Amino acid sequence: MEQGFSRGPLGSSYIRPARLRRLQLPADSIPSQRTPDAPCTLPITRQAEQVQDPARIALALEEIASLLQLNGESHKARAYARGATIVVTLGQELESLVRDGQLTEVEGIGPSLSRQISELWNTGSSSLLTRLHATFPEGSAELANLPGITPRRMQALREALGVHTIEALRDACLAQRVRTLRGFGEKTERRFLESIEAREHAPEVPKRMLLADALLITRRLQRQLVGHGYADQLVLSGAARRAQEVLTELDWVAVGARKQELFDQLARSTLLMRVDRERGTAATPEGVPVQLHFADSEYAGATLLWATGSEQHRAALVARARERGLSLDADGLRDAGGDRASASADEAAIYRALGFDYVPPELRGTARLPAADSGELSELVDANDVRGMVHCHTLYSDGKNSIEEMARAAEALGMEYITITDHSPAAHYAGGVDLDRLKQQWEEIAEVQERVQIRILRGTESDILIDGSLDYPDAVLEQFDVIIASIHNRFKLGRADMTERLVRAMRLPIFKIWGHALGRLLLQRDPIDCDVDAVLGALASAPGAIELNGDPYRLDLPPEWVPAARALQIPFVLSVDAHSTAGFGALQYAVAMARRGGLQRGEVLNTAPASSFIERVRPTIAERAD
Ligand SMILES: [Zn+2]
Ligand SMILES: [Zn+2]
After folding, report:
1. What does pTM read for this prediction?
2. CA of 427 to the centre of ligand 1 (A)
3. Ligand 1 mean position to 35 CA, how many Å?
C-alpha cells in the first residue's frame, strides 16, 4: 500500500526489507516456520460446554496461576499466567499443536505447561489443577484477592472454619465465628465484611495487556481476517501502535473490509468476545476492550492517523489543517469545498500536506510536530542501526542455548558482535557463574570464536549487592569485555537505602551498564523505589551507560525516563536480555522504547562497529576523579 501506511512501531517502518526477513525471529510467538503462513484450520464453533475451547483452557490456566501464587510458587505462576494468554492467541491452532505434540515449540510453553494444556484439551481437566484444589478448593483464588487476606490467614480460615470462598467467609463473619480465631478479632471481621461489600459495588478494574501480547493477537487476527480475504489489511493502531508498554484498549483499522463476512468470521473466532457489529466493539478473552475502525483505501491514511492518536497529537494536526483552510478527521483531509484530498490515503502524505515531516507513531504521544524538511527525526535510532546483540544468557546460567547457538543465531540476524552476560554467583537461583565455571566459559568462548565470524564478547550480568558493590573481585571484573550491573534481590529496600545502593554502584570507577534499571515486571512487579535523578546523576559523572531492556515484561529503563538520561548525556545500549535464541526478538521492543524516548543513533553504543563498541565499554578501572 502507499508509503507511510504500513509504518508501525513494531511493523516495517524502520526495518528495511532485507533486514526485515532476518529480524523476524519471533520474540513471543511460535517458531517462524509455523508463523507467517501456516494454514488456518477450519473455524470451530464455540459452545459454552465445549471441552476443546481455548478460552476455557485459558481460564483454567489462570486459576492454576492464582493458586500457584498462593502456594508461593510465583515463578511458575507467571509461566501459567502467560500460558493463558498464549493459549487464547493460538486460538484454533491449538488443536493441531496438541494433536501433533508440538506445543513446546511455542515460545513460552515448557513441558509442564504443555502437559496441562494437552490434558485440558483432551479430557477437560488438569491433574495440576486437581492437585491444587486438594489444598485450595474452588473459590480460593477469588478469596485470595480480597483485601486483608494473606496466605497465612487463608490457611487459618480453611483449617479452623472450613472457609475457602468469599461467600463462606461472609457467612462466617456474620455468624461472628471469624473473631474467635487467633490473630483475627472483631476489627478484622468487620473489615472483611466491608471489603466484601465494597467488592460488590466496586467498578471493574480495567483489564490490561502487554504490548507483546497485542502484537501476538494481531498476527492471529490478520491470519483469520486478511488471510481469508475478509479485509485487505488489518493494522494495529491506538496506543499499541505508539508502542505504549501496557494497554487498556486495543484498536485495529480494517482497510477494504467485507464487513458482513468479517463479523461472521469474528463470531466464530475465539480471539475476540462480545463482538458488537453495530458499534464495532469487542473484547479480548481477558476482557480488554477492542475498537474496530473501518476505512476504504482512499482515506485509510486519515483513519489510521485518527485511530493511532494520541489525542494531543491529533488536535495539533487538526489545528494546523484549520489554519490552512482545510479540515481533518477520520474520514480524510478535505479542502474548503469539502472535497477529499488524495493525501487522505496515506499518513505521510497528510503530514506533508500540512507542512510537517512524517512523525513515527512512537513519537505521537505529544503535540510536538517537526517542520517539513527539518530533518529533526532523521537520526532517530532504528532496528537497522543495531550491530550488536547485548545482554545474552546461555546454559552457563539460566539460558536455554549454548554459547555457539546464541552466537550463530545472532550472526544469522546480521549482528557483528554479541555479549555473553551470564549471571554472577550471587544470583545462585539463576545459576550464577562461579570463578571455576567462568574460566571454563572463557575457554569455550575462545573455542567457539574460532568457528564463527561474529565477535563474541566476554561479559557478565553482575549483581549489584546490597552495599552497592559488584559481584566479582575487581581483578576478575577488569578481565571482562563488558559488565552489566543489575539488581536481582531486595527490591523492597526503602527509597533512601535503594538510592544509596545504586548511587554507589554507578559511581564505581569501572565502566558498567545499568541493567533493567528499575527492576519492574509489567503487570507483576512495581519499579523499585529510588531517586532516579540522583542515580542518573551518579552515572553521568562516572564511566557507564544505561540499557533499554527489550524483554516484553521489563521495557526498562521506562521510556519516560529516557529524556532525563539523555539530558545528562548518558550513553545507552539497546539490549535483549535473551535467555534463548528466540529472545533476540526482544530487540524490536528495545528499539521501540528508544524511539519513544527520541533516542538518536549516535547515543546508542551498540550501533557502533565492534571495535569501537569494545573500546567504549571496556571495564578498565579508572583512577577516581574525586
Ligand atoms: Zn537481570
Ligand atoms: Zn539478564
Report:
1. 0.77
2. 9
3. 29
